[in-house]
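Budget justification aside, the reviewers requested a transparent look at the raw inputs and outputs of the sequence design task funded under Objective 1. We therefore reproduce one unedited record. The lines immediately below are the structure tokens for a 190-residue chain.
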């Protein structure tokens, strides 16, 4: 249940660290250089919001609605996006650190990850059809029963994907990325 509403607001340099911002709706708001580390954003709706150079380290997003949200230059390490509401879930990331985050079972069609660090991110059982991983580092990212149909990995690096357990019809890869599809066979490609 939403108790507070904020529309078309601009927030800059605010420290929300450790604060409770639960049951709040932010609509068409922008956040620049804000610190949400250890903040509790549970049951909060973020609608058409943008975050630039914000820190979300150890933030709680349980039951939160992320609806058409853009993150640019943000630190989102270890965030459990899988605990966010599925209703209208839509996010895009540019130049973000998302290492150790979880997107398990999320429906993320057409999401853009641009120049992001996605080290050890868990995408198990997620729908990543038509997702673009432009210039992303996917070292040790987990793809297990993931829908990767029409996903674009052409400029992504360090990924290891098992085509036998993931849906990959019409996914795009560069020639140099083919090794990431054959890693489980421990073969040498020159």
């Amino acid at each position: 249940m939403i108790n507070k509403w904020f529309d078309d607001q601009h927030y800059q340099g605010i420290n929300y660290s450790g604060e409770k911002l639960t049951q709040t709706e932010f609509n068409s708001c922008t956040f620049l250089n804000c610190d949400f580390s250890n903040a509790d954003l549970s049951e909060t709706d973020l609608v058409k919001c943008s975050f630039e150079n914000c820190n979300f380290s150890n933030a709680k997003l349980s039951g939160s609605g992320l609806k058409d949200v853009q993150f640019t230059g943000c630190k989102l390490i270890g965030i459990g996006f899988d605990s966010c509401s599925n209703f209208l879930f839509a996010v895009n990331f540019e130049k973000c650190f998302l290492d150790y985050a979880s997107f398990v079972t999320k429906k993320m069609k057409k999401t853009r990850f641009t120049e992001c660090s996605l080290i050890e991110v868990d995408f198990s059982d997620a729908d990543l059809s038509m997702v673009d991983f432009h210039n992303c580092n996917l070292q040790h990212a987990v793809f297990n029963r993931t829908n990767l149909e029409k996903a674009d990995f052409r400029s992504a690096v360090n990924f290891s994907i098992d085509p036998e357990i993931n849906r990959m019809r019409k996914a795009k890869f560069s020639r140099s990325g083919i090794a990431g599809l054959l890693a489980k066979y421990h073969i040498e490609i020159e």
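The domain at 1-142 is CATH 2.160.20.80 (Pectate Lyase C-like). Residues 134 and 180 are 16 Å apart (CA to CA). Computational costs for records of this kind are itemized in the attached budget.
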